[in-house]
Predict the 3D structure of the following.
Amino acid sequence: MADIAESSGVSKNTVSLALRGSSRVSVQTRALVERCAATLGYKRNAAIGCLMAEMRRTGSARFEATLALLNANKDKHAFRNHPTLPVYVAGARRRAEMLGYALDEFWLHDPEISGERLASILRARGIRGAVVIGLLQTNQLPRRMSCVWEEFPSVVTGVRTRDPELSFAGADQYGLALRAYEKAWSLGYRRPALVLDPVIDALIDGRFTAGFLIGQQTFRPRGPRLRPFTQIEQARQDLECFRSWLDQYKPDVLFTLYHEVEEWLKSCGYRTPKDIGLIQYEWRSQRPHWAGMDQRNDLVGEAAVDLLVSMIHNGLSGVPKQPIATQVTSQWVAGKTIRGGANNLRSQEASPAC
């Protein structure tokens, strides 16, 4: 480290920051340090890397730097008030603390902060990268903030962005939809159907639908395939379209994202789970009686921080040429909205923890 500092004419601290890709060092200085390091034959010490990993594992990691936690939701208070976003945030905070990083929160839709101003704040605070949480209705980030991800390594959670296309951490929606279908089939359901807004599915590149369709092809290659119910907003205004769909297709289990479907069935004269079962694609602790797939969004938040820290340590910055995607496997949760659900739930609660 001292030899590189002497060769490049900068301090050892600057060399350390440059080799870690810190935004506190200019691009020109970073390039100079990297050239001198290459000339002197510098290589990262794998033993030191293992030591730092062990320090992080045991919780003895010292403070390293600060990361930005960017709220991309239109609601300024979504990190506290939204039914699912706080779970992402909790995971991100837990992992950042374990790795020795602090997290500073910013709201991307703040009308009083421009992209240039936010980037300036991040530089002034020595913030080295950003985790973006809260995109739910679009796969595009605010363009007025583009200078932030053009300068700082950034990772998006939940929804894969298209403009810009950033590295991404999220649940494996295809895998969870397929596993939910398999679980329903094992419980004896033979007329499964989707109740899903196609706009939401489009945001995740149709992965819910893809998992469901592969389940159909696998378990019922020639049997009846029920048309999905997609008129979610219309049903919220007038339930008759949902009632008509139920009466026509007669499903025995529904896969959905909407807890209100339980009330819709009741209003239409159907009993859950005796007449029609319900399986939630995004199980939430606020509705523990439901059966469904826990997307483990806390682990998604952790994975986003891991991915961001890896990018920082490798000196990456700006919008990547080849974005990286990390997917987290979901977990089946038994519940009372399916056949034998109460018994399954009691069995699950009685099982010893592994």
